[in-house]
Design the sequence.
């Protein structure tokens, strides 16, 4: 089964802890080949300089967004990669509509853009903590759908990943940060407060994914309790997406046909 079919979010998604676990074990040799193929296609995208690819990574704290970025793109030409991490909006950003800061960071022609967190934060944490009303949340779903459709119609291929971990796995990863002094910089006490709202966040994620899952901007739910399985699953979806773009090298330059370098 193709990864884009295996992991595509289902209608009326309900996130369950048991679905964060993977049955199969990753194949490192196969994954290395997938990453090599992604690197080759990324070079072709960069050379073509016509289309763009936007990757959205979402997930609860410790779900592995940073690790996924490091693993997927360690061998990619950084000139063709634009990664953006979205945190709490600045005063200037908050004075604009919620998509203003997002639109500034979308990839340009030839680039792969990676959003580590994204515009979806504005229908997740804002909903869970009551910063927006249910009516406003629904309006934002519609605005996100329109925004992503506009990107797709102007040459951006969009692929969105939810890295799905269980509550028990999050506990273990948070505890590992506490137990290792070298990882204390990663630990934020606020994560414990957000963890108390686990069910609310799972509902907010499932609703947001269901409301914005479209053929031109599909969501993929990746079992992420296993880091290696997570990396392989994301890589397979990404490779199939790049292949589906039917990339090609730019046409040869006729001026170089008989050129001899002396």
Sequence:
């Amino acid at each position: 089964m193709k990864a884009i079919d295996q992991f595509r979010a289902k209608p009326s998604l309900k996130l369950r802890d048991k679905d964060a676990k993977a049955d199969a074990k990753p194949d490192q040799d196969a994954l290395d080949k997938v990453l090599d193929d992604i690197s080759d296609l990324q070079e072709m995208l960069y050379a073509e300089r016509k289309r763009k690819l936007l990757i959205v990574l979402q997930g609860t704290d410790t779900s592995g967004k940073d690790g996924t970025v490091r693993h997927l793109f360690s061998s990619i030409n950084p000139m063709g990669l634009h990664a953006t991490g979205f945190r709490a909006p600045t005063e200037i950003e908050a004075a604009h509509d919620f998509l203003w800061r997002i639109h500034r960071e979308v990839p340009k022609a030839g680039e792969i853009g990676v959003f580590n967190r994204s515009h979806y934060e504005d229908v997740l944490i804002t909903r869970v903590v009551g910063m927006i009303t249910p009516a406003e949340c629904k309006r934002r779903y519609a605005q996100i759908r329109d925004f992503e459709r506009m990107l797709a119609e102007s040459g951006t291929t969009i692929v969105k990943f939810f890295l799905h971990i269980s509550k028990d796995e999050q506990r273990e990863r948070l505890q590992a940060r506490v137990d290792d002094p070298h990882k204390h910089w990663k630990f934020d006490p606020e994560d414990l407060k957000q963890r108390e709202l686990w069910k609310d966040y799972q509902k907010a994620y499932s609703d947001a994914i269901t409301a914005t899952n479209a053929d031109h901007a599909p969501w993929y739910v990746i079992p992420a309790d296993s880091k290696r399985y997570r990396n392989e699953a994301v890589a397979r979806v990404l490779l199939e997406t790049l292949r589906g773009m039917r990339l090609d090298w730019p046409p040869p330059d006729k001026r170089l046909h008989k050129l001899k370098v002396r």
About this structure: The radius of gyration is 20 Å.
